[in-house]
Amino acid sequence: MLIWKSYRSDYRISRRIIMGLSLCVFPYLPASNLLFPVGFVVAERVLYIPSMGFCFLVAQGWHALCLVARKYKPLLHFALVILLCLNSSKTIYRNFDWQTEESLFQSGLRVTHNNAKLYNNLGHVMESKGKHLEALELFLQATKVQPDDLGSHLNVGRAYNSLGMPEKAEQAFWMAKNLLPKKRPGERYQTHIVPRHMDLFLNLGNLLSKNHSRLEEAQELYREAINMKTDYVDAYIQRASVLLKLNRSEEAYDMYKEALKHDRMNPDIFYNIGVLLLEQGKSLQALARFDQALKLNPEHEKSLLNYAILTQDSGDSSLRRLAHERLQVLLDKGRQPERTYFNMGMLAMQDGDTLRAENYFRKALELRGDFDAALFNLALVLYEKERPLEAVPYLKRLKGRHLKGLVLLGNIYFSDLNNYTAAQQCYELILKQDPNHIPAMHNLCAALFQMGQLESAESCLLRAAALAPGERYIDQHLKLVRQHRKKSLPKFLEKPNSEPGYCSGSNSNCNREGTDQNSFSKNGNAPEEQIRL
């Protein structure tokens, strides 16, 4: 009708109508699915320009009515005002839908129940709020609406995984994988895969790699992803991690080198290479890789912490200063402050600045009261500053979890407090956890001697001599005990001169030491357990 009107009207009116129709129709054609399929689109942006055309036509129609029915002109003005008010109120009402993502997607679902994208988007909103069960229900609904949507099945798998249901998560991931284009035997062909759909391989691979018996299956999955997308850096990194678990470190190293060919600006790759080198005992090369990671990202947390740990005993004060500066960057960002304070304390210990070390350890404990390594090292600082009584409360807070802490506590009871019964309890607790701990066994023998239990002391030293044959100090003390039993003379065994060394991390392997005359040597170079991405 409008086209006919424009054809029959004079040129000026015809031009206005054609202009309005063009604005209504042509901008909407691409989203209409008339020319080619584009999917289901629900968005105001599709109607911005068509709305302008509609306003042109309304204005032209109202103007024409005013010219024809002049005596009803007030009524026409009133009708126009009512129309504007109705549309304004509808616009205001619609604005409430735009307040949040959740209200926007819910408004879309009120219009249509057959759009998988709306269910998925609303599910992502629920995920971000921690409502994983509600998100799962929405993702499942999306798969019902569009069963061939790979992204919906991928979302279902992630939701199941978040809810601690790995079996159902794996099932959903395999369903998603079956929707990928199938290989054609004997043919080379290209196909397009949405980049985010490649996350399917990472999610399924991570799930499989949690089961040691399925590590080979996981690494084959990552290899398939790499074959599909040769520059898929995350797949290289994850496959290398699985290969390391399979004790195939050379292949893992090759994976990291391949990843570097595609992305030399990724600090995670350099960090993981550093961890691999560290596990192979190549500390200097590992330190260089951590340094490269920090040059790319000065705030890379794991590289910062491991760089600081490796430089603690490097003997190079300039490296320790650099490590301190880098840790300060991490501290300024407020990331893992308790571990940062602890490592800064260890650096201060190596520089001989016990005052700063004590301050850093106390700050670490303010943030995390059960930080065993900080408790022990703070006690050690106080002990070395001849404040053993202040060290005792911190050692007691370890509650027997830390063997070196028990040795130090036992030695304070023995040497400083002359409380041999308490010392005996400490040494016996150590031997329950490690029956072959020679320093603790020797010191237990000394405590028994001091309490006058000569027969028990002799039996104790015989056990120690059997575990550590040829140790001169044990043989000498055994000889003294036997002489004392024979002559009944007041001879005294020398007090244990154990000198606890530094424990450089809460996960350090610092509970078993050598069997020289000192209970411990100051080594302080056991790094924390390394973290792989």
From TrEMBL:
Start-end of Polar residues biased regions: 504-524
TPR repeats: 116-149, 233-266, 267-300, 338-371
Transmembrane segments: 21-42
A single MF term (Gene Ontology): mannosyltransferase activity
Signal peptide annotation: none
Top-level taxonomic group: Eukaryota
Keywords noted in UniProt: Membrane, TPR repeat, Transmembrane, Transmembrane helix
Protein name: Transmembrane and TPR repeat-containing protein
Gene Ontology biological-process annotations: protein O-linked glycosylation via mannose
Disordered as annotated region, ranges: 496-533
GO CC term, one of those recorded: endoplasmic reticulum
PROSITE patterns assigned to the protein according to its UniProt record, in alphabetical order: TPR, TPR_REGION
Annotated source species: Stegodyphus mimosarum
